[in-house]
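Journal club prep — side note

Before the paper discussion, L.F. wants everyone to see what a predicted structure for a comparable chain looks like in token form. Sequence:
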Amino acid sequence: MSVVEQAKRARDAAAELAVATRTVKDAALVAMADALVTRTPAILAANEADLAAGREAGLSAAVLDRLALDEGRVAGIAGALREMAALPDPVGEVVRGSTLPNGLELRQIRVPFGVVGIIYEARPNVTVDAAGICLKSGNAALLRGSSSAAHSNAALVAVLRDAVAGAGLPADAVQLLDASSRDSVKELMRARGLVDVLIPRGGASLIRTVVEESTVPVIETGVGNCHVYVDAAADLGKAVAVTLNAKTQRLSTCNTAESLLVHVDVADAFLPPMLAAFAEAGVTVHGSPEVVAHSAAVVPATEEDHATEYLSADISVAVVDSLDAAVAHIRRFGTGHTEAIITDSTTAAREFVARVDAAAVMVNASTRFTDGGEFGFGAEIGISTQKLHARGPMGLPELTSTKYVVTGDGHVR
């Protein structure tokens, strides 16, 4: 089936979803969760086929980690759907309202986008998260995953479609596009008028391609060259713990710290324990000359290192002369995702927060907290790094637009 035909079927499904009650949508989400748990063995068998092919193709450990499912991860994905069912339904929410001087009643209410296309790499959990968040917000989902997860995604979508249909909603609310060729991506990016918004999730190359080539409106997400800046007034023990968590809690996510900046006044005291902690965790440090001087294990950093989203057990480290220099470094190499400062100085924290341009800024906290679930939004479609419509974790409200409802009593102008 062509992408155009799938998009037309998605538009029909979206028309039904737009008027579905919260009770019906929530029942579908719970049915999807139950079906995932019940059919876990089939899902894991499909996932193992993808993992075997990935290992044979020489995929990196980070990519294989993103691709892998086990019973715990499937249960977690199902749990996220149940949590989503418990969240408020954004559709129909009154954003603002008033009675105009002429007596007209004006309300701005949330409505679904309609058809949402998602192009993403590896992570089969995105298949379920995207389907669930689109359904809850009244949107039909066109999912285009990567060929590396083709078996996993096909198994997951088969489960989800059965559950959605069983709950009384159209199965075409969730559709998987062919991942065997790039033609489906091109067709999806050109389906203006059939697809209302396109959301890319993946590496810089994928996101750049979609943003530059799509005629469908795009919400840009999540390349994460995230920084931790250790200020002169930092608690160094706290700084080591937070930085280690930000880098190693999970290597393959967009909110993982990829760069560390250290104020020169605390570098001699901070770097030895930090480098030791990295070494114990198996992290390779790519450092500026001041960092190299502290350990023979440090690899001299290039400018490219400071600009890299590693998604692996690597981190760039540099010593800076001031908070100003840290902000300048972040402005040059950051991607607008998440930046963190470790400091006991309220003044330094306020200045950093005010001057750093990012979707999320952490003060004495790990970058790993930039996440819809951690923020209490439930599952998210991604982290938006743009400045229009939505920025940061994209939860249910961010998957809606608005319309104005104007009620009169025979009013004429």
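L.F.'s comment for the group: Residues 194 and 343 are 49 Å apart (CA to CA). Keep this in mind when we get to the figures.
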